[in-house]
Specification:
Blueprint lengths: L2 E2 L2 E2 L1 E2 L6 E4 L20 E4 L3 H4 L14 E2 L4 E6 L10 E7 L8 E4 L2 E5 L4 E9 L14 E9 L1 E3 L7 H16 L2 H8 L6 H12 L13 H19 L11 H9 L85 H9 L4 H8 L5 H8 L1 E2 L4 H4 L5 H9 L4 H8 L2 E2 L16 E2 L6 H20 L8 H5 L5 H8 L5 E2 L17 H14 L35 E9 L6 E7 H7 L9 E3 L5 H4 L11
Parallel strand pairs: 6-12, 13-20
Antiparallel strand pairs: 1-2, 3-9, 4-10, 5-7, 7-10, 8-9, 8-11, 11-12, 14-17, 15-16, 18-19
Helix pairs in contact: 2-5, 5-16, 5-17
Length: about 625
């Protein structure tokens, strides 16, 4: 057999990258499948497996050590036979599902190969007969075939190798700077700009009558879809990328373990210049250093949804600043550390609900929502004690923290109206939400106070215990007019993560994979008794969304289409393709008994939680 410069001869299909080497050591960890029953002991590894083990081993559909990742260099090795210079070794790799690819032949005891597409492949290792004497013991030809599954692997963002994290952020920056039309030309049919995701999410989450993305049963599956299509757009730029997850329960464990406070939440490397950037040291509450510094919010007064200044922001966000905003506080106060989603919150979500209805209704709030609150926050509040002299310190803090929902809810309830237009030279103080009634009208003032009391009680009862409501009960009737007058003139506004334009912030995109990963774990560790899209037991208790009394809850039924595409297996063709699916279809495709998504999560481990005495039981396939 011909050999050139120490490399064995190989035959490659067009477009595939592969290198064969007779002396290359494996990149990966142990291969438990090497045994007498596999005479050559095919081992499969990549740059992550040496330190992190084989990924996704807990999924029933994954054979340990037989998952490969597309467009990532994979090392193949014959682990049960030592390399003998007098023998010839070879590999054949053939696609066995979906669109056919020409088989690839590679010579060598080990080889590095890049799988080009999702699906299954037959990998055959071959040891030729001894050229000296095939009859000698061990000199006969041996062949072994195994099947590998090629899918993406989503990892903890802190586990990404530096080079991969840089590629991820660079690709995201491309989505920020290259519009969809230009990107389709340069990167192909799956490219979408960041504005596409922000605008679509904004249109569906900032409607006057309903939020089709949140506050209902469609929350999780709608965000599985938006995450999947964003991942697809990133892969159009760099086909090797998968979105990571940010397990934010690590942050609260770290801060609590160190005896810290809420300010320490932003000391993680996640918020450094080379990662998401940090806005805590800027009076404008924007990132000023790093690749995401001074990120401009797109301005388009012709967009379906925009704020009074024309920016792609929710109508109730009157912010005129052109840069993306992260406030981290609510009018100079903040929620307590106990509000940040913790190991306990994720454990309780996993093991407290045996039906999909109760689980999904809980998932959107305490285990997830506060992350957006802490990042986005509210600012431009002025001195609340001067504006609301009738309130004590408890009332002032609660009023500030209630901005988590009341500006949006009052606008949606028809109590607030957003200006249709504020010119560039309109000062921020003069561009604010306007009450649809006069503070001097007793009935209107009483209605405002009553509605505030309603929301304060609800916030408190749903876990936001920093918000109290006794101060509203104690508010004197003679103070209503002064209180409502000040309340109706506030020009406070949220950061993007606190409103419907949240996809504009890069930190948005690692939040929801964390919730999806937890759902996958739930399906393994404590499966649902019922997966029906209705209340368990008494169907009359079924509510599909918060707006069920005034709308048909579009976007939240099992049969409603998601707003974004998902890449799933087409069982008829055997290929993975993007498609608009219903909430119910996505939920079914995530079923671990018949898993059809294009990715797996690397692992289900929470060592930081175990250190706090919160133990997520280990699962295996």
């Amino acid at each position: 057999m011909a050999r050139v410069a120490g490399l064995s001869l190989l035959v490659a299909i067009p477009g595939a990258f592969l290198v064969a080497s007779r002396s290359q050591a494996p990149l990966g960890g142990s291969a438990l499948l090497s045994s007498a029953s596999s005479p050559l002991g095919i081992e499969v590894s990549n740059e992550y497996t040496a330190s992190r083990g084989h990924p996704a081993a807990m999924y029933p559909s994954v054979t340990y050590g037989r998952l490969v990742e597309p467009h990532r260099a994979t090392t193949l090795k014959m682990g049960n036979v030592a390399e003998d210079p007098s023998r010839s070794y070879g590999w054949t790799i053939a696609k066995s599902s979906g669109a056919k690819e020409d088989a690839v032949a590679i010579a060598g005891h080990s080889a590095t190969y890049v799988f080009a597409s999702l699906g299954t492949y037959a990998v055959t290792a071959r040891l030729d007969a001894s050229p000296d004497d095939p009859s000698q013991q061990g000199g006969n030809a041996v062949e072994e075939t195994t099947t590998v599954d090629c899918k993406y692997v989503r990892r903890n963002i802190f586990a990404l190798r530096t080079a991969e994290r840089e590629k991820l952020f660079d690709a995201f920056k491309t989505l920020m700077t290259v519009d969809t039309a230009a990107g389709l030309e340069s990167y192909g049919i799956n490219y979408r700009s960041l504005d596409y995701f922000t605008e679509t999410h904004l249109d569906r989450a900032a409607r006057r009558d309903i939020d089709t993305m949140h506050d209902g049963m469609g929350f999780l599956t709608q965000h599985v879809a938006v995450t999947n299509e964003l991942e697809l757009a990133l892969q159009a730029v760099d086909a090797s990328l998968a979105l990571p997850f940010w397990d934010y329960t690590e942050d609260i464990a770290r801060v609590r373990g160190g005896g810290g406070n809420t300010a320490d939440l932003w000391s993680s490397k996640l918020w450094t210049d080379d990662w998401y950037g940090n806005a805590t040291h800027d009076d404008r509450h924007t990132v000023t250093k790093g690749r995401f510094a001074y990120q401009k919010v797109t301005r388009d007064r012709n967009a379906t949804t925009h704020n009074p200044y024309g920016y792609l922001r929710a109508p109730w966000n009157v912010n005129k600043d052109p840069y993306l905003t992260r406030n981290h506080e609510f009018c100079d106060t903040t929620f307590s550390l106990d509000t940040w989603p913790s190991c306990e919150a994720h454990y309780n979500l996993t093991f407290s609900y045996d039906n999909w209805f109760d689980y999904v209704w809980t998932a959107g709030y305490a285990p997830h929502g506060p992350i957006h609150y802490f990042i986005g926050g509210f600012t431009h509040c002025g001195d609340l004690s001067t504006q609301f002299p009738m309130l004590d310190a408890e009332g002032l803090k609660s009023l500030a923290l209630m901005q988590v929902g009341i500006t949006k809810n009052f606008w949606r309830d028809g109590l607030f109206e957003s200006p249709t237009y504020c010119s560039d030279d309109t000062p921020q103080d003069q561009c604010h939400l306007v009450c649809k009634g006069a503070a001097g009208e007793d009935d209107f003032a009483a209605a405002i106070v009553a509605k505030l009391l309603y929301y304060a009680e609800n916030f408190y009862r749903t876990g936001l215990s920093d918000i109290t409501y006794a101060w509203l009960d104690d508010l004197q009737v003679e103070d209503y007019e002064a209180f409502v007058t000040a309340f109706c003139q506030m020009s406070w506004y949220p950061g993007e993560q606190m409103e419907a334009a949240s996809p504009a912030d890069v930190s948005f995109w690692s939040i929801h994979p964390t919730m999806e990963r937890l759902l996958h774990y739930k399906m393994l560790a404590d499966p649902f008794v019922t997966k029906e899209w209705k209340a368990y037991g008494d169907i009359s208790m079924t509510s599909y969304c918060e707006y069920s009394t005034t709308t048909d809850c579009k976007g939240h039924h099992g049969y409603d289409l998601t707003a974004f595409k998902s890449v799933v297996l087409d069982v008829e063709t055997g290929d993975y393709a993007p498609a608009y699916l219903t909430n119910g279809e996505i939920f079914d495709h995530m079923s671990l008994e018949d898993y059809k998504m294009s990715y797996y999560y690397e692992d289900f481990s929470w060592p930081h939680c175990e250190a706090r005495g919160v133990v997520f039981p280990a699962v295996s396939s």
